[in-house]
Amino acid sequence: MYELIVQTHFDAAHFLREYPGKCAQVHGHTWQVEVTIVGRELDKLGMLVDFVDVKRALTAICEQLDHRMINEHPCFQQTNPTAENLSRFFCEELASWLQGNHPHLRVGAVRIWESPRASVRYVPEEECTA
Asked: Any idea which positions bind Zn(2+) (predicted)?
């Protein structure tokens, strides 16, 4: 089994509904994102998937949130934009891209950092689906 790992980041604001502390107020983070894609088969060039393609897909997902209020995104209008929920969101979006472009691969994990020392790692029990 191969694991391909790509990291990126985006800047965005959010707030947590019904949170009993400061995080109920609008605040921002430079969110770090790390995705792991797994698969068994390499292509004719000896690659699981081209890093360039994964980076492009990940950039498109980040652009939905970058320099925005995450709470206004359709996926987070009812769901709190916690690091946990963001990691699942990235998993589902990336899984959708893989299904259309590389159906032999799956998302192994997504890690989201909201600060340099605080992160959440989402590992789907089954394949993420959009």
From this structure: 14, 27, 29
Is there a catalytic annotation at residue 75? no
- Residue 10: which CATH number? 3.30.479.10
pLDDT (tens digit per residue) in 18-54: 999 999 999 999 999 999 999 999 999 999 999 999 9
Chain segment 79-104, per-residue pLDDT in tens: 999 999 999 999 999 999 999 999 99
The answer to whether 104 is annotated as binding is no
62 catalytic per annotation: no
Domain total in the chain:
1
Residue 39 makes CB contacts below 8 A (sequence gap 6+) with 1, 2, 4, 48, 49, 102, 104, 105, 106
